[in-house]
Write a structure and sequence with these properties.
- By secondary structure, this protein is of the alpha+beta class.
- The protein has one domain: Jelly Rolls.
- The chain is 18% helix and 39% strand.
- The chain has 1 helix and 8 strands; from the N terminus they run H-E-E-E-E-E-E-E-E.
- It has a 4-stranded antiparallel sheet, with no helix packed on it. It has a 4-stranded antiparallel sheet with strand order 2-3-4-7, with no helix packed on it.
- The longest helix is centred in the N-terminal third of the chain and has 21 residues.
- The radius of gyration is 19 Å and the shape is globular.
- The N terminus is likely disordered.
- Keywords: Signal.
Length: 119
Amino acid sequence: MTKSIGKWLSVLVLGGSLLVSTHSPASAAVLEKKNPVGFTKAWERYSSGDNNKAALTYGYNTTAINEDYAWANHSSKSHYASLKNGKNTWYKGPSKKGKAISKIEVIHSGGTVYYRNNY
C-alpha cells in the first residue's frame, strides 16, 4: 500500500510541475495585429495597448530585401516582439526589460502576417 501511494504522489507531483511549467502567468498579455494591407509596396503601422504603456511598430520593408518586422516596447514590463508569417512559425525577438525595444525582422513569406508585442 505504501509503495502504491508513493507512485501516485510521484505522478501528482510530476503532473503538477508540468502544469506549472506550461501555464502562462496571469499577468501575461499580448498586443496583436494582422497585416492591414497587401505586400506590393512597403508600409508601416503603429499600435498601442495596456493604457498606452505598450507599443508595437510593425510592417513590411522592401529596401534591401522583402521583410516582415515587429518592434515592441513597454514602459514598465518585460516584453518581446514576435511575428508569424507564411512559414507558419512564430519568430521571437529578444526579451527586454521596460523601456527597451525588442525587434524581430524576417524574410517575408505568405499573404497573412501576425505581429505581436508580448508583455
